[in-house]
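[job 0412] stage=complex_fold ligand=NAP status=START
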Amino acid sequence: MQDTQSLPPPRVVIIGAGTGGLSLAIKLKQQLGYDNFTIFEKGHDVGGTWRDNTYPGCSSDISMVMYSLSTEKHDWSHSHGTSPSILSYWKDLTTKYNLYPRIQLNTAVTSVTWDDAMKIHRISLENVKTGEKWVSEAEVVVSAIGVLEVPRFAQIQGRENFKGETWHSARWPSDGGERLRGKKVAVIGNGASATQFVPCITEDPAVQVTEFCRTPNFFLPPVRIEYSATRRWIYRNIPFVQRFWRWLMYLRHELFYLLIFGSGIMRYLSTKIATYYIKYVAPKEYHEQLVPKYTMGCKRVIFDTNFLEALHRPNLDLNWDGVDRIIEDGIITQKGEKISFDIIIFATGYAADKFPLKVHGIRGSIQDYFVENNGPQAYLGTTFPGFPNFFTILGPNTATGHTSVIFTNETQADYIIQLITPILTRHVATIEVKPEATEEYNEKIQKRLAGSVFVNCQSWYRVGGTGKITNIFPGATTLFWLWLRKPKWGDYTGLGLEEWLQRRQKNKMWNVVRWCVTLLLLLGAAAAVGVVLQRNGALPRWLERW
Ligand SMILES: Cc1cc2nc3c(=O)[nH]c(=O)nc-3n(C[C@H](O)[C@H](O)[C@H](O)COP(=O)(O)OP(=O)(O)OC[C@H]3O[C@@H](n4cnc5c(N)ncnc54)[C@H](O)[C@@H]3O)c2cc1C
Ligand SMILES: NC(=O)c1ccc[n+]([C@@H]2O[C@H](COP(=O)([O-])OP(=O)(O)OC[C@H]3O[C@@H](n4cnc5c(N)ncnc54)[C@H](OP(=O)(O)O)[C@@H]3O)[C@@H](O)[C@H]2O)c1
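[job 0412] stage=complex_fold status=DONE, emitting structure tokens
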């Protein structure tokens, strides 16, 4: 048998340089000092969500002390970051950890195929600029391709017939403001993205906006504040203060989970507050349509970014009649009214229920596996039976609607690092989750989801908007962290795993024995010294009593 320890270190491929992929890369360097990895990124730079979403007003709705890497504090100017500030934070980290040389930009992974004979993945790649194609190999592949990544245009008849300009909220043109000036603009959708940019674009009275809304959202008052110079100084200079604030924010977000998702009584109170807020700020004419009839929390609760106030502007109308079809110069509503437009902006979300990457495992593709299971599923959102040495960050049922996804990204990265360490040290060749563990886990979470608020409306958390809930995690992130803190090795199988676990167990036992023997020797030596001192009358008085 070949001496595996003399082989070069195994190769790790990370797909995607968003917050998930970068978190893992940083941790590989920080925790293991490991840098035999490559990140393939189809975009022109790192940042994922925060590179792509440049629409006006785009910002986080989670406080930045939480929506950042736990090990990397930063001098934030506001409680909640704008898209450019978040992007710049991640670009700085990429430079700080010298990751750019390990990232191949403009490089799309088109498929990943497991070669079971060679125990490696073959990764098909394409340069998105030149079209050049090639194949790379790696022992370990981690997909960090995100969920809110592939723009979804609503399936509205006639989109291709429109003669004016159209774009998606995640593909905002750099001169968008100029293009919109003096134009009649239709915005389709009223989710978190639309409600952030609509108040910004309607600040210009020369932009006339009609927003087509289908389902209302619950709003809570704005949360974003500017930090004072003193506060920033304290965060920068007094040790642990920012960390302490992070803990407090963590608890606040978890409390928010309990308020909205945890208990019926608390949800009732939260619903009252949100309804009162909507009615207090929005124009009376919209009250009936703006207050949701579904259970709060079923869709992402939106922290208002001046959207409700902006509804008072004369250049902004909400239209609840439904879009029937798009024609050459406008939109026909389901009531048969024709409205002319120069520009249509699709704020219609993302194809979050499809896994856009072709991955072939031992028995078939990941797409087949998802079809067999009525939608995406994984074990702890991270591993899939039949797909050795393949891992995901932000995989099925890992998203949160109440706290930082970066916390989830990090929790998964820490978990993956524990799983792949024996592969990276070449003690184990493959790691694969057992099918029965995956089934058991998914039964458990689907049972929790069946009794949750998420079944009460249409959302991107579900397959096709109304099917199986495959995106959201049914619990507070503390529970997610507890489940992923240490791998349950019994749920995994793999080549060399059993032997490695036995050796690890033996080493652990030997360590305990070593500690016990050392302790006994020390005690024995101390006792011997004591006896000698006593015989010579040199024992201190306070010790004599002993
Ligand atoms: C507008 C907006 C605001 C948000 N605000 C918040 C917030 O406030 N708080 C919060 O917790 N979450 C928020 N989210 C969710 C956000 O997506 C996550 O917080 C997080 O950024 C996801 O990071 P990721 O790395 O997992 O995925 P992404 O950021 O989506 O990154 C995935 C990367 O993979 C690359 N990629 C994809 N496919 C391939 C391929 N085949 N080959 C090569 N590269 C590929 C993409 O180009 C991208 O760079 C927001 C999402 C959106 C859209
Ligand atoms: N930091 C933040 O605050 C922030 C900002 C933006 C995004 N995000 C994250 O990204 C997620 C996605 O947000 P998003 O707003 O981009 O997408 P989204 O929440 O999926 O919203 C899409 C919107 O388009 C509407 N829509 C879809 N098809 C339609 C049709 N045929 N006619 C009319 N309306 C249609 C939807 O209506 P229905 O509701 O009826 O389906 C919904 O209002 C959020 O949930 C959040 O997690 C966060």
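The CA atoms of residues 127 and 286 lie 49 Å apart.
[job 0412] exit 0
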